[in-house]
Amino acid sequence: MKPISRGMRRIYLVVFTLLFIMLVPTLILYALGYRFASDWSIFSTGGIYIASDQSGAEIYLNNKLVSQTSYFRRGYFIQNLRRGNYFVIFAKQNFRSWSKHLDVLDQKVTEAYAFNMPNDPVIRREIPEFTKVSVATSTLTRPNAFYTDLLIDFAERNLQSESVLGLLREKDRKKVVLWQEGNKVHARWTGAEDAAPYFFCNGTCHTDVVVYESPSPIKYFDFFPNRNDLILLANDSGVYVTEIDVRPDRNIQPVYEKGGVDFIVENGNILYVKDGSRVLEVETAF
Amino acid sequence: MEYQNRPYFHVARASQLTGKDRVIYKLFEILPGFLSWASVILAVVLSFFIPVYVALFIIVFDLFWLFKTVYLSIHLRHNWKRMRYNMKLDWSKMLEKMRYDHIVHLVLLPFYSESFEVIEQSIKSLLSSKYDKKKMAVVVASEERAGPMAAEIANRIKEKYGEQFGYFITTVHPKDLPDEAPGKGSNISYAAEQARIHILDKHKIRYEDVIVSAFDMDTLVYPQYFLCLTWYFLTTPNPYKVSFQPVPLYNNNIWQAPAFSRVVAMSSTFWQMIQQERPERLATFSSHAVCFRNLYEIGYWQKNMVSEDSRIFWNLFLAHDGDYSVVPISYPVSMDANLAPTFWQTMRNVYKQHRRWTWGVENVPYILFGFVKNKKISLEKKIRLAFVQLEGFWSLATNPLLIFFCGWLPIIVGGRAFNSTVLSRSLPMITRDLMILSMCGLILSAFVCMTLLPPLPPGYGRRHQFAMILQWVLVPISIILFGALPGLESQTRLMFSKYLGFWVTPKFRKESEVHVG
Predict the structure, then answer these.
(1) pTM score, two decimals?
(2) Can you say whether the dihedral through the CA atoms of A114, A118, A121, A125 is positive or negative?
């Protein structure tokens, strides 16, 4: 039995080379976002990418279900979209829905990062005011140092003078700076103008935006834990989360809806809500 | 044949030349590494500045890789069928109508630190072969630098088995001979010359009638190897213009070796099987055979370099002015897969072994230099072979890195403008899908592997067979760790004249008896 003849190998080589040459332009056009229409004409498409932290959520495009997120795939890329405006809903049972109108451009991907707060706040734990300590044969009740520290943090913030408050009222994370003017919270992008993140852009990019104008005085604001595109704010009605994203419609969802409450974010990633004398650690990662 | 008389015929490195020759040779030493590093660095740097073009290049390259995989799989499948056919054939019947009692097989068995048991296995496999042992000459070649124990082992082997062969000698290769580098090449060259004096000339055996099989000490032959080789020798139009290449299997201890070692070993076998279907690209590798006359005319294997198994082919090719080739006999010999007492030692040994194999890149400057100097070889042949060699070493060192790393690099460093394009989203999806399709070839690999395995040893069951199939998921990692990285290291060493010495692969078997075929 002989090796494959040189002639046969040449035939294989020629066939594969021709196939390769034919497929290359098709693959390149596909990768760039071009698609074939039913009449074999080529048209350009774009896409929408919705990032999220949720599994088991549903994604709707113009009110039609397109996908569900899973444990291994929490975001979703919707492709093959012709240029235009699309309405996206990101919904999960027992959670608030997030929605947005997004423009799709040729060969471009429009990004958004959905967020969904639960219908009812999830309390990780209540920080006890007192702790029990065993000493010999008896049990003593002592003030909980951590609770006391948190109260001090709340109090210090509120006791500061106006001029210092002006300083305190500025927060920054990853080149996004938040500050307050009256009942408005503003956001500014301090990085290179051409590197402004998508949530500062709606057609054109802005480095200064008004994030939210509250109907009642804003007691406090800060970045949402581990995000630089969401802000938490406390007013007379409760604690809310809203997005910096300038594209319509701006989403705002309650985190802890009750009058007279306040909040603080420790270490940039833990949310504590003060409800009267109670201090609660509220879940923000789902 | 005058090329072998030139002073640079056995050159091993640029520093052995002078003047313009040295410069040219050094440039050729730099070339393979330069091409590889330039490709990798360019891909990385351009990902920062023109990520769109790099992304498109990677997509096209992955498509090319898919087609190449399919194309090579066709070759693999064909050689697999041919090898199985050859293994089933009764070669004595094929030789029935031919006269071959004048053919003597000279088997060179060089060793350094192998144990008596390992050597004994090789001798036993020679005895099991279906060729007249009285027409076989065996040389057990030890090294003086290995100490007196090595010579003692060789003599014990001779005492126990020598009488069963027509001719049997042992040699002790002296250490520290001038112009020699320690290694297999210098040992077997010495052994071949001793065989010429003490066997061929002594018994008036014609050099043209002697086929030399240059084995490793762990090489075990299948029963009809010498009959098959004889048939090819007698039926080749001009056996003095060819070398003969069997297919190297690594079956001696395949069931005991860890998964990584098995995958790497079988991948090497598959590559050789593919090359057997492309004989115009084939050079000799590892255990091979060649007529003694050919060897004698060019002074045997080079003694001053590491990759003597492939270099001998290029020596002969240049000496014959390009009129020399390899006949793939599509019949296996079996050797050891890399196995050490611990897993990490095995991994280290596999890496070192592959670094030594990829050190075959030291042939590239020799070949290109020879092409410059030998005006009798046609330009078409020179260009074709130069391209085959350079492309081969370049793709070995760079393709796995380009495919598995540059598929996502533009996304990481391409910047926001690139990341807002459809292309940045398409890139990982398309490359993933193309690679999955390419990996489908692993199914063929797993199937071929299962058919080439030796029987299950006692105490090994279905779990081990299943592992033999599952192991192929390690290919993406092994192709980088034991292909690209040692390849890149070898080429880099050559660029900077950090020449590799010979490294003896330690032989470790968990079982005393090995059966092949």
Answers:
(1) 0.86
(2) negative
